[in-house]
Amino acid sequence: MSNKTSRVPGQTGPSAVIEGRFQVIRKWFRGNPLSPTWQRPALLGLLALTSVLYMWGLDRNGWANSYYSAAAMAGSEDWTAFFYGSSDPGNAITVDKPPLSLWIMSLSVRIFGLSSWSILLPQALMGVLSVYLLYRMVQKRTDPATGLLAALFFAVTPVATVMFRYNNPDALLTLLMIGSASAALKAIDAGKLRWLLVAGACVGAGFLAKQLQILLILPALGMSYLAFSRAPIIRRFMHLGAAFLVAALMGGWWFMLVQLANPASRPFIGGTRNNSVVELTLGYNGLDRLTGEAAVRTMTPGNSDDLQAGFQRFLEPQFTGQFGWFLPLAVAGICITAWLLWKRTAGIPKRAVLVLCAAWFATSATVLAFMSGIVHPYYSLVAVPPLSCLAAFGFIHLVRLRRHWKPRLGLGITLLVCMIFAYVSAARSTSDFPWFPQALLILGSVSIAVVLIPAAGRSIRWITVAVPLVSVLAGPVLWSVNTTLSPHVGAGVIAGPSILHVRTDSPDRQQLPPNIPPTLLILSYGDIPVPGVIDRLRQAPQNVTWPAAMIGSESAANYQLSSGRAVMPVGGFDGTDPFPSLEQFQDLVHAGRIWSMVIQKLPPTTLEGHGEAARIVDWVSSHYKAETIDGAQYYALRP
Predict the structure, then answer these.
(1) Is 85 helix (H, G, I), strand (E, B) or coil?
(2) Within 10 Å of residue 33's Cβ, how many Cβ atoms?
(3) Strand arrangement, sheet containing 626-629
(4) Using CA atoms, how far apart are residues 362 and 335, in angstroms rounded to an integer?
(5) For residue 632, which phi and psi values (nearest 5 degrees)?
(6) 466 vs 457: CA distance, rounded Å
(7) HSE of 613 in the Cβ direction (CA atoms, 13 Å)?
(8) Contacts of 229 (CB under 8 A, 6+ apart)
(9) DSSP string spanning 220-249?
(10) In this predicted structure, what is the pLDDT of residue 284?
């Protein structure tokens, strides 16, 4: 019986085995022999750097958005809280989003224990996977250089860096958007319905992550499939109908079960007035986000978001540094895409990916520009994947044609606009980098010069590529590195250094704008837990469902995570949800299920005496004696 072992000629024994394994590893790093030698190493290097950028020092963010961290803790302790996405293990009220993102975090906490790493690491891994999927989507339909550059642009865009290091559901939503786009394009390439059904499943899962926001990609998916699929036109509509059905089943089963459940046997649906997931979908997380009604219920007059609607919103200090670095290149990419479509000089796969990205970006940017009320800068993350693809395509296309004066001039003008955008963003952060605006002007001017002056010689031509690329990447890379090295907490996270000497997501509240009312800060940060109250919560009997109740979910979450005990968030996130009612609260107190109430700073509407939360505060303060503990008002609610 012979034992056949592959050997390298001239070698025998263990050295041949080692050499054989080395060859396998080298082939793996090399990749497809028909691909450029630099392609696989460049991809692996990009993914490694992305991993470092998204994972380095994750625990410096602490609990990040404690609202979702507390829900992840609750889901790890109680399966009912897991299914519904409850804020606390006692299942008083849910968070104001569907629970898919929470399920992932809760499972991580169940496996690895409650910590900043167990909550935030899944988001970072989603980011690395998103970068890889975007590379694959673009590279297979254009070329390796465009694919790698698109993935690089996406990876270092500051808003992507901050959100893939955070526990908001936007990380999962973005991954599912890229997944649905990739699957739809594969359905066009292969002519297989199953890939379009996969795209539909991703859309449905995105609905379970952040509800109607996933709809921003639907026009792009439908338009690209109808335009470029090889199936007969009637069959294309039938295929889209089947994909829509899959999306509805994938995204609707949870909502159906929750809506049909007995309201008395499940937690109250956070973010609603009528305890309905339909209201949550179409109202609070739907039309209310576009019309501004979601902000009206939270903000008092004079404190609402004053960002003017329109595309000029992207020039505001809160937005430019988040995703505007590559915006001029993306506009150039859209113009080139329109030219290619007019001339029909590109193949179907390339035109399909460009049309999909252009439609995806246009839809997302338009909605973001004109929505009212609560407009967080991190909402721009959904527009970053298509923006990165278009920007990479525009840059590569112009660079390859730079021997001709028109593309060279176009590239020079685009770099000039990029330099202006970068300078404006950097000039707003001179307290952290006082030298950077001037450095960007110098670097940008040099890059424009090397582009406009015709290059003679191969080595010189490489400089005309490298210098412009460095000038475009310098700003977002510095902003992303600063994001990685800085702590971020609260509901309104933002990437990069301080803007006009202000950091709106810093754990150091001294960096916050001095004109923000303390009551509004509670909505984003919640109260700072005080040690004396934490000790009281830990000393509460184990059979008590809620050792404490607090107004607003952020404050309740901070105390829940610090004490390890359930804290009832009266009024939900902003204190305006009508749960519990005063009568329900009284019944829970008399039944011994609520042990105490803690009051520090109150949200605006409660402080003004509006809503059930204000009635509960009045009842507690008039029937029980307050004990001041480290500045907090502690009411012992004994039946």
Answers:
(1) coil
(2) 7
(3) 567-570, 548-551, 596-599, 632-636, 626-629
(4) 13
(5) -100, 145
(6) 15
(7) 26
(8) 187, 188, 191, 236, 239
(9) HHHHHHHHH--S-HHHHHHHHHHHHHHHHH
(10) 78
Q: Among 233, 125, 219, which residue's Cα sits nearest to residue 181?
A: 219
Listed ranges 143-157, 369-383, 443-457; the one with the highest mean pLDDT: 143-157
Kind of pairing between the strands at 626-629 and 567-570 = unpaired
Q: For the residues 291-296, what does the mean pLDDT come to? A: 60
Instruction: Answer whether 164's CB lies under 8 Å from 154's CB.
Output: no
Whether the per-residue pLDDT at 82 is higher than 60: the answer is yes
Domain boundaries, the chain: 522-636
CB 557 within 8 A of CB 569: yes
SS3 state at 436: helix
Q: Are 385 and 130 in contact (CB under 8 A)?
A: yes
> How large is the C-alpha radius of gyration of the chain?
27
pLDDT tens-digit series, residues 212-221: 999 999 999 9
8-state DSSP, 592: T
Q: pLDDT by residue (tens digit) across 427-447?
A: 988 788 889 999 999 999 999
Residues 6+ apart with CB under 8 A from 400: none
Spell out the alpha helix ranges (H) of 486-574: 518-524, 531-539, 553-563
The whole-angstrom separation of Cα 125 and Cα 104 is: 12
Residue with structure tokens 């105490």? 596
User: Is residue 5 predicted with pLDDT exceeding 50?
Assistant: no
69's CB contacts (< 8 A; 6+ apart) are: 63, 105, 119, 167, 557, 561
Neighbour-count burial of 624, counting CB atoms closer than 10 A to its CB (0-12 exposed, 13-18 middle, 19+ buried)? middle
Task: Average the pLDDT over 362-369 and give the result.
Answer: 94
pLDDT in tens, 266-280: 999 999 999 999 988
